[in-house]
Amino acid sequence: MNTTTTQPPTPGPETGTERVDLRRGSLPRHFPGVLLASCAAVVAGILLLFGTFGFLLWGLLTAAAYVVISVTASARVEGSRKAKDRLVTSLVYGCFLLAMLPLVSVLWTVLVNGLARFDGYFLTVSMNGVLPSMDAGGAYHAIVGTLMITGMATLISVPIGVMAAVYLVEYAQGRMKRIIMFFVDVMTGIPSIVAGLFVVALWMMLFGPGRTNGAAGAISLTVLMIPVVVRSSEEMLRLVPQDLREASYALGVPKWRTITKVVLPTSAAGLTTGIMLAIARVIGETAPLILTAGTSAISINWNLFDGQMMNLPVFIYSQVRMGGAINYERAWAAALTLILVVMLLFFLARMLGRLFAPKVR
Amino acid sequence: MAKRIDVSGLHVYYGDFLAVADVSMTIEPRSVTAFIGASGCGKSTFLRTLNRMHEVTPSARVEGKVLLDDLDIYGPDVDPVMVRSEVGMVFQKANPFPTMSIYDNVIAGARLNNRRMSKSEADDLVEQSLRGANLWEEVKDRLNRPGSGLSGGQQQRLCIARATAVRPSVLLMDEPCSALDPISTLAIEDLIHQLKEDYTIVIVTHNMHQAARVSDRTAFFNLEAPGKPGKLIEMGETNQIFTRPEKKETENYITGRFG
Fold first, then answer.
1. Which contiguous run of DSSP H or E holds residue B19?
2. Which of A185, A295, B71, B103 suits a disulfide with B143, CB 3.0-4.6 Å?
3. What sign for the dihedral angle of Cα A97, A102, A107, A108?
4. Coil, strand or helix at A65
């Protein structure tokens, strides 16, 4: 750099002290991995030496040792900015693991405990004629009940919810809209037991005492499901660009056709996901179904409108209430079944979402 | 097929705010009329009143008359939906329907209006419209692909094909080239030249060279100050507007001098 002849603004070019060195020391690329592994090994060794090995203690001490060493080393070699970066990175990873821990733990526990009784027999046999303490019986009647009740709730809630969302997004204006949105929000917060109580009272009024059945359970789930469907569908419909509606209007297409042929298909993927989430939300509801669909059904009941109907959450509840070892096994297996049903639904939602999604290329 | 538009004493309001004041003009059939003027002076708003698209915005309303040939499109028993199938529109941002293929996009107007069509009729309509939009050669092998996979310029021509497939008599274009590169712009301008054989075309543009290139007549809109309503300052033969404008304001705008 021979800047001696040019402008003075760059001060002291001849001394060279003003030159900024862009290079910094850096730790080797594999440093974090190697350090973590060696921390884990050393901590494990020490703990084993003292004979106090425990997974939780091991994990915590390893993490602490890793953070302290990596941050100090980084501060020495790389400077304070990189050191802070490493600290925060470790913190974020740590929080992620912490958040995952209960989830994985729950899944693992359900899997381990549930597999003891989870087999074809359990899935295809009801509790009809089985004494609670017998080594027999299964959850078929509860699976049937769950599918029937949730299915009916879905059939009722989805049209109402989606159409309400269409009304809110495409038609409603001003005060009416605010009022409806307020009540939808309030309904989202209704405790599920209250929904159950409401339906019990309704059935009492309509059909007299003791006449609750599967349909009552479905209606109580509907009360819980509609606001969820409305909210999620509303968000999805708002995501449809105004451009597309205008493009359709400009072709001389009436508003209702624009909604059915352009707006709804464009948001179909999102609507499906929202509906599936709403189903997942209510499929595990227990309280309103204890009140409405009954806790003592033991046989398969395909009729929503006649008699009590067992379902998976209530099955788990009543088995746990009985308290025997075999009952706990059944409860865990039913819990596993319920989780699998929900996972199947999510998988289905993904598939449907991909099917409906607007295609590019 | 092309129709004349006669506007007289048109005011456009958003709620209580007067956005465009007292516009009267005649738009000749089988010609291209360009609207120029600064952003926010109401030319797009005015354009949208020509097929009642402004009604999509809540609180927008209009006073005055717009005659399509002899019919007042704001008459008491006129259906805005029918108006829009007679006066088509192309937007600034190309907006093909993302769920539909190229083919379905072109016949969307007919399909969505539930017009019964045999397969061969539909095929003919699609080919004719795409040829009319100079797009046929580029897409004829991939009609079943989604329209959103095309380039920006192709998408805009697809939108023009979609608008013409409804067989309107007037085509409104709201800055159709402002998001396109020069080559695609040229393609659209060529297309406008061809389309004016059959349609009445109104185009809003920020590009004065474009107005000079494509239009037969030009209308200049301006507003005195922000918050004041936009007004039609001057309208005339494009040649005359760009060479011998009558109003000082027009001259200032065209030559790039303001104030």
1. strand B17-27
2. B103
3. positive
4. helix
Angle between helices A140-166 and A312-322 (to 10 degrees): 140
- Domain boundaries of chain A, sorted by first residue: 26-114, 123-356
Sign of CA dihedral B190, B191, B196, B201: negative
The nearest alpha carbon in chain A to B167 belongs to A251
CA distance B243 to chain A (A): 35
Residue of chain B whose alpha carbon sits nearest to that of A243: B95
Q: What is the pLDDT of residues B5-50, one digit of tens each?
A: 999 999 999 988 999 999 999 999 999 999 998 888 888 999 999 9
- Span A166-180, pLDDT tens digits: 999 999 888 989 999
Q: What string of DSSP letters covers B150-212?
A: S-HHHHHHHHHHHHHTT--SEEEEESTTTTS-HHHHHHHHHHHHHHTTTSEEEEE-S-HHHHH
Mean pLDDT (whole number) for B106-125:
85
Cα B129 vs. chain centroid, distance in angstroms?
Answer: 17
B164: closest chain A residue by CA? A251
Prediction ipTM score? 0.88
Picking from B48, B90, B112, B172 by the largest number of A CB atoms within 10 A of its own CB, the best residue to mutate is B112
| A267: contact with B, CB 8 A cutoff | no
Task: Report the alpha-carbon distance of residue B118 to residue A38 in Å, rounded.
Answer: 74
Tell me the C-alpha distance between B32 and B215, whole Å. Answer: 5
CA dihedral defined by A115, A117, A123, A125, rounded to 10 degrees? 180
What are the φ/ψ torsions at residue A331 (nearest 5 degrees)? -60, -45
- Classify domain A123-356 by CATH number: 1.10.3720.10
Contact B20, B46 (CB under 8 A): yes
